[in-house]
Amino acid sequence: MATILALETSCDETAAAVVRDRQILSNVVASQTLIHAKYGGIVPEVASRQHVADLGDIVAEALQSAAVGWSEIDGVATTCAPGLVGALLVGLTTAKTLALLHHKPLVGVHHLEGHIYASYLSQPDLQPPYLCLLVSGGHTSLIQVKGCGDYAILGQTRDDAAGEAFDKVARLLGLGYPGGPIIDRLAAEGNPRAFPLPEGNISLPNGGYHPYDSSFSGLKTAVLRLVQKLKQQGVNSLPTADLAASFQETVARSLTKRAIACALDHNLSTIAIGGGVAANSGLRKHLLAAAAHHNLQVLFPPLNLCTDNAAMIGCAAADHLNCGHHSPLTLGAQSRMAITRVMELYLPKAGYPN
Ligand code: KG4
Ligand code: ZN
Description:
Elements: E1 3-8, E2 13-20, E3 23-31, H1 33-37, H2 44-66, E4 75-81, H3 85-101, E5 106-110, H4 111-122, E6 130-135, E7 140-147, E8 150-156, H5 162-172, H6 179-187, H7 217-232, H8 240-265, E9 270-274, H9 281-293, E10 297-299, H10 303-306, H11 311-322
Parallel strand pairs: 1-4, 4-5, 6-9, 9-10
Antiparallel strand pairs: 1-2, 2-3, 6-7, 7-8
Helix pairs in contact: 2-3, 4-11, 5-6, 5-7, 5-8, 6-8, 8-9
The protein binds 5'-O-[(R)-(carboxyoxy)(hydroxy)phosphoryl]adenosine and zinc ion.
């Protein structure tokens, strides 16, 4: 059993949480969305400065609402990769300082591993092996979860991440930022079959297509061309609801097809979803229907655990600490890092899987 104070500052959410293994004792998130919305996207330097301004109060609030004193904390965790380096450094420096001051082990956590662990918070009985469909603003991957720190990437996007595609399409439709939730809301009022769009298959030399990898950049360009064509035809107001619904339907169908094929081919009976796009109602509808058809289990964490939060980081850190893994105080922040390399974040000890 491990009780963790966890921080998350990899992007535009300043978050702290106290987690005991798979149980949330507190979970505080201050979103910077409104601050970045006026720029149409995240401004890294602004994000870092806001983390510095907010993190102290957020940590105090997380400890206070968990009603946990430092004597009960077994470790201090923070996201250290991947993410915006300046933003990561705010959480990492704070976590190192707290760990040093209170004589606690430091546990660096890979952000995507955190998204995977969100499923354990809502489904504490979940056990590997299973398939995780990780769909966030920066990543779209199909990951086989074999155990703590033990992952295999079975499929991924060749270009834009699914969340990035939602954000870019929302911007070209003039809908604002962040695009995912806006498109999701608007799609409910539109016809998903109004405009046929390309699913983004990756062609293989044998004439088929890659069963698990995806591409969303062509889909985004197809929406752009469609908008240009409609404008050339003199359309006064764009049919944004139909465009949003058609785009969302295409992304949901593409992700569902790949996740189901991957789970079936690898004999994995459970698909856990992680990342901000897991909140998407179209994806939920398609995946649940397809999974029921193939007798697979699909787990969607609640929305507040799908988007960035520190509870998922704490849950991953608790598992690592229980396995005897902790990080050196010299740990650095990394903007990019494959999830297959997570064990590099921990001090070497006998028996590590390599
Ligand atoms: O996991 P996350 O909070 O941050 C990253 O680690 O990237 O994901 C943020 C992404 C954004 O691109 C946002 O547009 C998308 O998740 N998103 C959604 C929805 N809610 C958030 N995409 C589609 N539908 C939603 N309802
Ligand atoms: Zn994330």
